[in-house]
Structures
1.
Amino acid sequence: MRRLPTTPVAVVGLGNVLMGDDAFGPTVIALLRAGWEFPAAVELVDGGTPGLHILAAVHGRKALVIVDTVAGPGAPGDVHCYRRDDLRALPILSRTSPHDPAVLEALALGDLTGEGPDDVLVVGVVPASLAMETTLSGPVRAACPAAAALVVAELAWLGVPARRRREPTEPEAWWLAPAEERP
């Protein structure tokens, strides 16, 4: 286990809760908040769809965990983990969508300035649908607890373990409520 007891760690859930399975990142953040207590060195961030604003979550961190949908192999709901070296191997392409969270660009800028995280993990899920809707598909909804467990395991490995709440609360995520209960 690596020890980072006083260093800043960000766990950032990316995605648009109005686009179906793209709500995966914010949903996992809501599950983490509801189910665990975190040390002061860990910040949970619902990052939405930040573009280059993601620099605020990257800059000055020693470790970064990103939770998002990914265009990976496999079926909807399959969870994939990517480390820093996996991301460095990817080309930085022209941004063609305002939805693109600019993770690769932010990490490259962090490297350039010397202010980027040493450890990076992306926990990604293959989406079934990114349509304009506020419902997660069954496979992606089912993958959320496993993704949360991966985040908790990563934090323990980094030396900033989360503690399971004795009495978990309901996630504060309006998009997870039945349609008739939504605001």
2.
Amino acid sequence: MKLQAKKAGRAALDAEAAADPRSIRQAALGLLARRDHATRELERKLKERGFAAEAVGDVLKELAAKRFLDDARYIEHFVSYHASRGQGPVRIAAELRQLGLPAEAIEEQLDTVTDWRDQARAARRKKFGASVPKTFRERARQARFLEYRGFSSEHIRAALDGDVEPS
């Protein structure tokens, strides 16, 4: 693999190396060895490294056929990981949509989480303790926190044991 002048801290590839399927496959497998990637995310990273778009597409199709690259598996792991960290379905879905993953696959996987209300309660309890706030100001603060975490208003009401209304 011949290299040209460095550009932005990374050596640029010559035309031959940029279209070489073996080089692309090696780079893709190196990235996949570190962590799972969505197809568009991996495609973007390979193009940023200077590989030819058409050749990248062919290699990604090959990797998907061999199940080295699987968007459904990526969505499953992403939802599981982020839900266990106390994030809600709204935030998780938004992040997955940014990666260009299909909305129906995202919704299908989000539906597998047993109970988002329980997840919201657990996130609130972990951050603020077991007692439910009595003042409007504190309830609103906790509601904003849960909203930032990606929970819907229904989940937030359940976590706060009812509507957030001034007392």
